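tl;dr need the bound structure. longer version: we got a ligand (D-xylitol-5-phosphate) that a collaborator sent over and nobodys looked at where it sits. i said id run it. heres the input, straight from their email, havent touched it
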Amino acid sequence: MSNPSHEAIIAASILSADFGYLADACCRAVRGGAAWIHVDVMDGHFVPNLTMGPVVVEACRRATDAVLDVHLMVEEPERWLEPFAHAGADRLTPHLEATRHIHRVLQRIRALGKGVGIAINPGTDHRLLDPILSLVDHILVMTVNPGFAGQAFLPEVLPKVRALRTHLDELGYTHIPLAVDGGISPETLPHAYRAGARIFVAASAIFHHPQGIEAGIAALRHAIPNKP
Ligand code: DX5
Ligand code: ZN
């Protein structure tokens, strides 16, 4: 079973925040109970959308001391590690599919003194992670095809989350938590939790909640199943 010391974490993805009030959005998310701020970086090549660069991470850094996790949906992430590290990221999470040299990329993130994440798309076999498991601090399993907020959760990814959790535990990597990203809501979160996820990335469910950011986070936290 997954490491009982993994407390559930809500990571607020600012992709759906009001960018006119970004600092305020970050502060409200953290006050509301988000332990991480998740920054979705897209390059228009690896995914069909273009979003934010290091200056946005700098702005988030000025707004909060919370963990800033930068999800790099960019080709050749090796080109962007230093700029995002220097902008104030705490963790860098590139995609396995985005570079020929993922091992080197993860080594470089570690050398920069940052937390090491690795993300995989819905269509990627989790066993491709085996050669790099010793290098990572968390694994982000995409539960939508990356590129946009507001997409529907893909339930067919759940068996992969479950299999990966079991696999990690069997190999002794109980300390590596699994994150899920895409379509996370109070309805889908419990399914991902029961499959072994402990870090829940959400944009729409938080920043488009009709009662506000804090209410969106409270609804997600309320949906976390009680431990047996
Ligand atoms: C998708 C991004 C996600 C996205 C989640 O490509 O990686 O972090 O912002 O958005 P929701 O929670 O709306 O599915
Ligand atoms: Zn993301």
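gonna send this back to them w/ a short note. Residues 13, 38, 40, 71, 181, 201 surround zinc ion (ligand 2) (CB under 6 Å).
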